[in-house]
Amino acid sequence: MTVQADPPRTSVVATVEIVSSWIDRRKRAMAKNLHACGQSPAQLHVLGLLSEVGPTTVSHIATQIGITPPSASAMVDRMDEAGLVIRERNEEDRRVVTVSLAAAGREALERSLGGRHDSLTRILSQLDDEELRSTIRVIERLDEAIAATSREALTRASP
Fold it and tell me: Which residues form the HTH marR-type domain (predicted)?
């Protein structure tokens, strides 16, 4: 017997609509910056990953962005030739290639984000201290809810 969940509260439905619309507007604004920076979305994904995790292997990049290792290797080759990443072979095991973010890659990533830090500073400066504290509380609470939902999904998926 399947247990049916109660429908979401009206306030939840309204909030989903507002947040979804806001996310769509932000994605369109970000897409404008992405097109202006000169790198493909996949290359920007790699740059972002390297910025986040630091030097890593081509196979890890492939796994994280959902492409085959040969495709990742070809992309990293092009990015290395463009000076966006540094590709180095491990001295102990020449089969292992480590990829790290070059200065030009870091600059390209920042351009693609449209000066996100500066932009956020200008935007958030328009809020008073209580609004800033509320923003932080909401973001932290959303992170908790996302983590709880992910854990629940994993628990349900486990045999």
Answer: 9-144
